[in-house]
Amino acid sequence: MRLSLRAGERVYVNGAVLRVDRKVSLELLNDATFLLETHVLQAEAATTPLRQLYFAVQALVIDPANADGARELCRTLQAGLLAVVADPEIREGVLGAGRLVEAGRLIEALKLIRGLYAAEAALMAAPSAAPAPVGAAAPVLRAAPVVSPVHPA
User: Fold this and answer.
1) Which residues face 13 on adjacent strands?
2) Residue 19: helix, strand or coil by DSSP?
3) Residue 33 CA from chain centroid, whole number
4) pLDDT for the residue numbered 80
């Protein structure tokens, strides 16, 4: 795997933070879990339920030493989402992301969650006063306060 980084850019590799001082290409010669800085979500940007889930999974990549707390947060957020969301695309994505996290395939889980952002935005933009079909649960999403497993308050 070859990574091209710009000057000052960071990459997270197996929990280590690397910052380059000039444009550089890195070649990873073995299996490694890495996250490019452009895909890192800051805590203050985790303003929706899916972004909060993304942030928790991201913490597993960035800070594997504290994985237990982040993994438990992932499970809690997943259960909360599944309890309130009826949208099949989001439900399947959240379940799939949970399976990927449990299998240790964190980067794939992050990609899957990012792919659900548009569906979440559409669902959150839908008028909440519209009645749900008879027998169907209303698709509701609520953002909760973010607690960072990486940077405790």
Assistant:
1) 16, 34
2) strand
3) 15
4) 93
